[in-house]
Amino acid sequence: MTVGLFIPCYIDQFYPGTAIATLQLLEKLGVTVVYPPKQTCCGQPMANSGYEHLTTGCNELFIDNFSDFDYIVSPSGSCILHIKDHLHSEGRENEAVQIRHKVYELTEFLTDILKVEQLDAAFPHKVGLHQSCHGQRGLKLSQMTELVAAPFSKPLQLLNMVKGLELIPLSRQDECCGFGGTFCVAEEAVSVKMGVDRVADHLEHGAEFITGADMSCLMHMEGILKRQGSRVKVLHIAEILNSSAQ
Amino acid sequence: MSTTSTKDHAELAGQFNADEKRVDWHDETLWWIRQKRDKAVNQLPEWELLRETASKIKEHGLSNLSNYLEEFEANAQANGITVHWAADAKEHNEIVHGIIKKHGVNRMVKSKSMLTEECHLNEYLTENGIEVVDSDLGERIVQLAKEPPSHIVLPCIHKKKEEIGDLFHEHLGTPAGVSDPQVLTETARQHLREVFLTRKIALTGVNFAVAETGEFVVCTNEGNADMGAHLSEVHIASMGIEKIIPKREHLGVFLRLLTRSATGQPITTYSSHYKKPRPGQEMHIVIVDNGRSVQLGRKDFRNSLKCIRCGACMNTCPVYRRSGGHSYHNAVSGPIGSILAPNLDMEKYADLPFASTLCGSCSNVCPVKIDIHDQLYKWRQVIVKAGYTTKAKTAGMKMMQWTLSSPGIYHAAGKAGRMVMKYAPFAVNNALNPWYKQRDMPKPPVESFDDWYKKNRGNK
Fold first, then answer.
1. Residue of B353, B397, B404 lying closest to A40 (CB–CB)
2. CATH for A126-241 (3.40.190.10, 3.90.70.10, 3.10.150.10, 3.40.50.11810)
3. Cα atoms found within 13 Å of the Cα of residue B197, Cβ hemisphere only
4. ipTM higher than threshold 0.95
């Protein structure tokens, strides 16, 4: 099995540690991982701003880079959801459709395709799990509190395999953090207030780390934590799952 | 957003957020209602099936709307109701005014109707010398405050009881400083009782209009629609064309969904069926299009017409809870308002589909399964293509497109960006950067993943 590693632009630029952890974790689990060097972005920042018609270049590039792989995996629920919902190509729609069916967010790839049942990881800290909306409600990585349906959570299933990790409860299990792409600057006041409230929920319950399957939400919350002078850190779930057992 | 609109959602929401304690109070009040909704719906194992069923009934109704409207009209007429058709808000207001004039009166009592808010009926009638008293308590409060409702089910949810006490002191003569809800409610009760007893004409909304029987159902918790209608000589009911349901038995689905979604109650306190005027009474129904048939013709947006106005999408929306209903500057606020409003005036409401993080919670609580957050995304595309956006935003997006379409430019730009953040942080950490106002920037790493990969795995 050869997996194409898709590293979203802001992870590439700002959070290389998340990308390295994703690569190492997949390799530890016996997967052959290839990182196509000519990748940039899924196109979501433009599409969510109403400019989906400007994403042709990103779409074609994505197809060039990834159509040959068995699976495409990325440590970002949001970018994967964008590809799944909106990757199109005028000349190569077949390839686009195939890609849309073989892209996976990291945690769902681990639970659904690799069927990981144990991990050699340890992280002896109090951790709050942020359910990013696009991963949760878009990719259905975990059950949503609005629905009358049986609970499940793919990220949680994996965090439960990590030795020493203590998961803290939250008052609001799956409320949005307010990042929302360009929303975070276009609607600055509401975005910040949503982030402040989300962070407060984790702090009140004693989190030392806030984790999740989407670095963009974590980046937003990190910006707020740092401004507050908090010592609580954000860490992508890949880095926790890849943390070596002592 | 557009050049002619006055204030957009972001600006109005910014003003609302100047008082953080008030935002917290607003957020917690509505979240409490969301929790009541959760508790109620979880008592019904068939909840998701009910939603699906309701969605399908509405789908069928919308797909055969003209037939059902004609069936409804014929049955209502056979029951002795006068049916009027209004193409738009203006025509609706003129029809209502015409009925009032015909009876030679200059005042009317009105129960809750978001359609009349949409048509700005109160303003129209006031300009024409007709006094309207809203009989829903929340509506009456915002009417005294000279404000529009901020929520379709809870019109004065943005007001604290002390502010309501002040309003009642000013308008209804309660002692200054009294904010006890029981005292205020009793005062409103006495005040409205006098109104109910003296108004010859009562206007109500319509929650459901049943095609097979020609009857309509009005849901209230206060019984105010009943008080007004039963005591009146003339009952006018205003309804949008989308209120049609084919059969009476379908009420068994919708009435179970409506109030559980709205407030967590199993059913509205009063779900009143109106079928025919009592002897000596006149009953009118005004059936209003006002842009609905245009929306019906928009493939991507037509099922927004399934809405039964429960307000659940507002209560769950993390943006609505923290920006207040008035920030949507439209009769219907929140997520559902943001997909309905652009149909009425794309330029004026171009900002609303962007007042969302697309978190999707609205679509999940919607009792008729409207794909609200997907429609917000689609409206964004329509609005940008129609040109209702700023040149600066378009220029920025084109720059982004240029950068992200070429790996070489992207990597060079990324490196340059990190260099700037490292050596000239003032270029990004300043008041002109909305991110930095209340958030720190991420610390730029020494190298990108791409750099790391080339260095560490380059020979693979």
1. B404
2. 3.40.50.11810
3. 6
4. yes
